[in-house]
Amino acid sequence: MAANPAQPLRRRDVIVAVACGLFVAAMVGASYAAVPFYDWFCRTTGYGGTTQVATSAPSGVLDRKVTVRFDANVAAGLPWRFEPEQNSIEVKLGEVATVQYRVINEAARAITAQATYNVTPLQVGSYFQKINCFCFTEQRLKPGETREMAVVFYVDPAMLTDADGAGVNTITLSYTFFQQREPSKPVADGVPKDRRG
Fold first, then answer.
1. Which of 27, 54, 106, 145 holds its CA 20 to 30 A away from the CA of 33?
2. 79 preceded by cis ω (within 30°)?
3. Which pTM was predicted?
4. Is 151 helix (H, G, I), strand (E, B) or coil?
5. What is the mean pLDDT of the chain?
6. What is the pLDDT at residue 49?
7. Which residue has the higher pLDDT, 103 or 8?
8. For 74-87, b where at least 16 C-beta lie within 10 A, e where not — what string?
């Protein structure tokens, strides 16, 4: 009895279909993993001016000074006023500094927002160490509320050992507040509590 010539073709089609399905599944998985992976990569390397979260105290204070400027922004559609209490300060490398910001909710409703941040020049992101920052958490302001918020930071003296960072005299720390989506509130089922069984 002669072999069926369509059988190898069917097997090949099944292999190609399975391979395509696995490829699509891998690409969907990669697209979901891309944002957290990119965020981790930026925080780890300082890529794109992403600042670091300090895990230890500065190793020492050097006489070398840099000027740190402060930039405050709000995204379009967010009715907040946001500004630093001072536009710039001069700090020694390794010196811990605290800077205050003020934010005012100018809307007639409570709003939740969170600040994104980076520094320029971009190559100093891995040397800009934040000890504490309002940007680590969401901020919820009531209508008309004013809030004082602080950022505590230092510029790592190791910046001087980096050929790209050694010549930097001015660093700009920039924040932008973005409105966060409000959590959905449960809808009442319409049955009074005393009649529920």
1. 54
2. no
3. 0.67
4. strand
5. 82
6. 44
7. 103
8. beeebebebebeee
Which tens digit of pLDDT belongs to each residue from 104-126? 999 999 999 999 998 999 888 88
Give the contacts of 7 (CB within 8 A, at least 6 positions apart): none
Tell me which CATH homologous superfamily contains domain 52-179. Ctag/Cox11 (2.60.370.10)
Going by their DSSP bridges, the two strands 65-74 and 170-179 should be labelled as parallel
| Structure-token match 């509590």, residue found | 193
CA angle 64–85–182, rounded 5-degree value: 115
Q: How many helices (H) and strands (E) does the chain have?
A: 1, 10
**Interatomic CA distance for residues 85 and 60, integer angstroms:** 27
With bands split at pLDDT 50, 70 and 90, how would you rate the model's confidence at 60?
A: confident
Structure tokens at 195: 């009649």
